[in-house]
Amino acid sequence: GGQMGRGNHAQEGHGMRGQMGQGMRGEMGRGQRGGPGLTQIDPARIDTLKTELAITAAQEPAWTKYAKAVQDTAASIKTTRENIDRDAMQKLSEQDRTAFRTQLQEQRQKEFATVQTAAKELLATLDDAQKAKAQVTLPGLAFGPGTTRSAGMGGPRHEH
After folding, report:
1. Taking a C-beta distance cutoff of 8 angstroms, is the pair 37, 142 a contact?
2. DSSP collapsed to 3 states, 105-132
3. Please, which residues have CB within 8 angstroms of residue 109's CB and are 6 or more apart in sequence?
4. CB-based contacts of 115: which residues, under 8 Å, 6+ apart?
5. I want to staple 130 with a disulfide (CB 3.0 to 4.6 A). Which of 98, 99, 118, 126 is the partner?
6. How many whole angstroms separate alpha carbon 99 and alpha carbon 120?
């Protein structure tokens, strides 16, 4: 009966491997959690996106407003990031640090809302083909649903 035992064993091993592979992949995807989509805003890409979307003269005013919102927000995030004094942060109490983080998140959300509003106004002026493309490429639209989820991350969790 030695042969039967071996046959079973091989099959079991295979099942395990299959599951592991899937689990790992799922975890990986979940692990890459940037903050709200604003971190991916690259003002330099805005011109490229404009070309890709083939923005018309009639759509120009909405586009200009949107592009400005994106650029202002990106600049603000960069400034905020550069102004964070790591040493000072280390010296802060846990409470102050949490307050600081909360404040940053609120600021991000306000900025994101500005971009999102401008993006939605822009979207209203686009035709269907442009809309389809805009919804997957434009900051403020492409990352829409994900932002509310990630904004909750690292929020106040006082369980102790």
Report:
1. yes
2. HHHHHHHHHHHHHHHHHHHHHCCHHHHH
3. 36, 147, 151
4. 38, 41, 66, 69, 70, 73, 139, 140
5. 126
6. 31
Return the structure tokens found at 148: 């509310």
Q: Which two tokens stand for residue 113?
A: 């809302």
Residues 6+ apart with CB under 8 A from 108: 35, 36, 38, 77, 151
Render the burial of 28-38: b for 16+ CB within 10 Å, e for the rest.
eeeeeeebbbb
User: What are the tens digits of pLDDT across the range 29-71?
Assistant: 333 333 344 445 677 788 899 999 999 999 999 999 999 999 9
**pLDDT at site 37:** 45
